[in-house]
Amino acid sequence: MVEDIIDEIIQSRLKKRSRIFKSKEILHPDYIPETLPHRENEIRKLAEIIVVALRGERPSNVLIYGLTGTGKTAVAKYVTKKIAEKASMLNAKFLYAYVNTRKTDTTYRVLASIARTTGLRIPPTGIAISEVYRRYIQALDKWGGLHVVVLDEIDYYVRKGGDDLLYKLVRINEDLEKARVAIIGITNDINFVENLDPRVKSSLGEEEIVFPPYNAEQLRDILKQRAEKAFVEGVISDDVIAYCAGLAAREHGDARRALDLLRIAGEIAEREGASKITVEHVKKASIELELGRIYQAVTTLPLHAKLVLRAVIDLVKKKGSGTTGEVYSWYVKTAENYGYEPLTQRRISEILTELDMIGLINAVVVSRGRYGKTKIVKIPAEMIEVLDSAVSI
DNA sequence: CTTCCACCGGAAGTACCGGTAA
DNA sequence: TTACCGGTACTTCCGGTGGAAG
Fold first, then answer.
1. Separation of A373 CA and B4 C1' (Å)
2. At A117, is the secondary structure helix, strand, or coil?
3. With a 7 Å cutoff on the CB, does A123 touch strand C?
4. Average pLDDT of the segment spanning A220-244
5. Is strand C within 7 Å of residue A129 (CB)?
6. Are β-strands A207-211 and A180-187 bridged in parallel, bridged antiparallel, or unpaired?
7. A317-370, pLDDT tens digit by residue?
8. How far is the CA of A194 from the C1' of B9 (A)?
9. A157-161 own/partner pairs: CB under 8 Å, 24+ apart
10. Structural domains of chain A, with CATH
11. Rounded to an integer, what distance in angstroms lies between the CA atom of residue A388 and that of residue A249?
């Protein structure tokens, strides 16, 4: 009986507290620890820029560069939070907004999310962007303090939606009487700034901070510090932590990945009823993480993107790689087999680019001279079987 | 040096959906 | 209710283009 199964799970989980985890949240990607090892310099730089807010001045806008998992988000949240706490002690009017523009990826939603941090109620849809902007300005001036806006992963947003909003935000102070806005932009891609409107570029980059990647040793410190609080004593050894750090260091020192690895390894150990986390658990975690990412990506794909992926898988299995034109004719057959009206080639070309960006396939535009310009589509060998089983239409 | 293939990818527009505001 | 808003998924049209072949 289903109820029995569920009862049993609840029973066993509630009865004996985890033998592995003391406090799992500490390994969660959104958790901000009390200290951020090896980011002291970056914290100091950012704090020195923002702290003038406590004297009632507008801080410079800041651009933060660095690869994924180098602590950019954590440092930005940490500093803004600390200064907000100080500000409320000193009765300074200070608020901050944090928006991840990859998750919140349209102009309306970004602006609405920023505006809401001032206490405004903005509906999820239905009103004009200019109206949201108007209300935001009005609310700010009524309040009259300093609003620090953190825009995370802006490179994704700009690539998708352009720099209109950035342009507007950067010049928002001209529309304000009493209140002031400062922007902290965070980007993984150093080159993205080059494509920005020059006015946005100079204004946003008043100050710049670069976050270097962590090396294996630094990752080890970070993991060690978190593991102490997250795991029950004696569950994880320094060797296993070092192994995790090593894996992540190979991936350009991505601390978030290292923490994910540690957390999943712990979960696997717990599921298996082990009393210690071993290197084997970490290896399994690494696979599970990648598998999860792929399944997640594939299942949320729109119908025709799945059909295209299906066609690409079949084509690659047969020939190793293919051009846009080849993929298209395979896709037309696939679609018809499933009883769907095929879309145009223009659209399929776009879907191929989208699939490439998600990281499910490789699609590179190449010119083959006399034989035209096209995208060459491939799938990494180790991914093909996984994808094959993940795509269901 | 020119030609010309097989597409690329921007622009503008359509249809639909779920939502708000008055 | 009606007019309007933004997001998503798509179409139509079309000027461009890298580089092997001639």
1. 11
2. coil
3. no
4. 91
5. yes
6. unpaired
7. 999 999 999 999 999 999 999 999 999 999 999 999 999 999 999 999 999 999
8. 20
9. A157/A101, A157/A102, A157/A105, A157/A110, A158/A192, A158/A195, A158/A196, A159/A192, A160/A105, A161/A105, A161/A106, A161/A107
10. 40-211 (3.40.50.300), 214-297 (1.10.8.60), 301-390 (1.10.10.10)
11. 30
Q: Which two tokens stand for residue A88?
A: 């409320």
A59 and A182 Cβ atoms separated by less than 8 Å = yes
Query: Is A128 (CB) below 7 Å from strand C?
Result: yes
Q: Are A265 and A277 in contact (CB under 8 A)?
A: yes
The whole model's pTM is what? 0.85
For residue A134 the two structure tokens come to 């108007």
Tell me if A60 sits within 8 A of A99, measured CB to CB: no
Contact A272/A288 with Cβ under 8 angstroms? Answer: no
Average pLDDT over residues A37-48: 95
Q: Of A188, A198, A192, A255, which is closest to residue A227 (Cα–Cα)?
A: A255
| Nearest DNA or RNA nucleotide to A109 (CA to C1') | C6
Helices (H), A251-344: 255-271, 279-299, 303-319, 324-337
Report the alpha-carbon distance of residue A142 to residue A49 in Å, rounded. 25
Q: Which two tokens stand for residue A321?
A: 């790689």
Closest nucleotide to A126, Cα to C1': B20
Distance in Å from C22's C1' to A391's CA comes to: 45
Q: What is the pLDDT of residue A2?
A: 64
Distances A348 to A81, A158, A210, A363, A380 between C-alpha atoms, Å: 45, 23, 38, 12, 20
